[in-house]
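User: My collaborator sent over this chain with a note saying "see what the structure looks like." That's all I know about it. Can you take a look?
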Amino acid sequence: MIITFKLKDGVSAEDLLAASDDIQEKYLSKCNGFISRQLMIIDDMWTDWVIWETLPDAVNSMHQSIENESAMKFTALVGEVVDQQLYSLERAY
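Assistant: Without extra context I'll predict from the sequence alone. Here is the result:
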């Protein structure tokens, strides 16, 4: 799952990173099929790259996140979602 986004006005990188640490520890790392995650930035554009064992694991995590406090806090900082893609992992090196 690759999501590219901009922050809401007034949200700092530090705010996002703190929320990112929280969602990682309390939610994503505990989801079925979670493999790894990278959070990247260029200029004011962020990309959250989350790798899952299966596509259904990714979809399930998205559906369940709407009820998770850490996920809601992270999402509340996101302004414009520029792109969101779900890929099926075929091979990792």
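A starting point for your reply to your collaborator: The mean pLDDT is 94.
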